[in-house]
Amino acid sequence: MKRRSLIVTLSVAMLAVALGAVLVTAARARKLKERAANQNAITAAVAPEAAPTAITAQTVPSNPDRDCFFGQTHSHTSWSVDAYLIGNHLTTPEDAYKYSLGQPIKHPAGFEVKLKGRPLDFHGVTDHSEYAGVIPLANDPTSDLSKQPIAARLKANTPEEFNKVFQWIPQR
After folding, report:
1. 123 has which bridge partners?
2. How far apart are CA 70 and CA 119, in angstroms?
3. Which of 42, 76, 118, 146 is the residue whose CA sits 20 to 30 A from 1?
4. What is the pLDDT of residues 92-107, one digit of tens each?
5. pTM listed for this prediction
6. How far is Cα 76 from Cα 124, in angstroms, rounded to an integer?
């Protein structure tokens, strides 16, 4: 069981790193395309024979060190024990990725949520490594974990039960 827990923890960590790399790469690609489009617009607007000899604000490309990125630095999915115990039983890391791309996802309260405007430049899913994905499995009667003796301590359906699980976990 310890080996399986380690494998699950390592898998979640690798997924988080991969997701971060994908989001950073996508943000960089979008910025490069925007810079190229801006540079093409400047070049087209200034005819070579009429090019100014002095540098003006219209001929200077944007400074990449001053670009502003918008995103989410800290979010939890149902894989995190605290998010699961406060009612997030639906949202997975994949849902978080879809949300950051501007796609609609199902909110744990039952309605759809979607970003207004453009997608995020970055999104950090910061699920806790301890008990990653364990609480949902303990509460799923079809999972092998739910049939283990320890699962009885991790099952929760009411706020009182959630408090008991949350208070019991740090003792382990």
Report:
1. 72
2. 9
3. 76
4. 999 999 999 999 999 9
5. 0.55
6. 9
